[in-house]
Model the fold of this input.
Amino acid sequence: MGRGRTERVLVHRVHGDDRPRRQPDDLIVEEPLEILLDGHLVTTTMRTPGDDFELAVGFCFTDGLLAGAPVLRCRYCSDERSGVEAEFNVVTVETGGRAPVPEPRLTSTTSSCGLCGSMSITDLQTRLQPLAGIEPFAFEVLAAVPERVRASQKLFATTGGVHAAAAFDRAGEPVIVREDIGRHNAVDKVVGRMLLDGRLPAHDLGLWVSGRASFELVQKAWAGGFAALVAVSAPSSLAVEAARSAGLILAGFARPGRLNIYAPADL
Done:
């Protein structure tokens, strides 16, 4: 499937004191996606349809569900209970049974949440090693990333209703950009694409996100081996603590010519 879907609806547009005018408006599509690992249900997440295989692979990888097992293939599954409508809303990631059988999440993952507190920094330190030998990025490079990604945010330009994530190189040029109604989904799509392309760990790249930097996004950047995480908005205190534990560069409030560096603690 392609880079996401939009749906056109008629709205009443109001400008100042003028009477409302009936005009078309493009909205981002939001649908559930069931993610399975070797046929076992992992979670159901609300997402923007498109790049579903990347999303499923990225989610399984950043959540530690693959446990080092290689991804052999991804495919859509039909759901006989739902008929044709579910044909492109169920994806299974297949490792040939090499990955451990996952424990499904008790609740669905919304487009605005990630791990929902199910993991702690101690859990991450058990699963992930601190990033070693990370070369710093020039501050002006990190600050310039948002403007360089903007041209690739096609869905946002159309609807104003999606987040974006981008992997960028040492010069600040985006190499992979993905959009989704959920920040975590956009990141998983980037990570999933890179895993399928054999480009992880991404020690030579940074990860940019179009919102706040939560603990879960630091976890995903750490799992992917990115050297830096740059956010348009603020990080949480737990995100800063996790980034410092990871040895990850964490920047927030990135704007042309300025940004805040939250990790490492000492520059």
User: Anything to note?
Assistant: The chain has a mean pLDDT of 91.
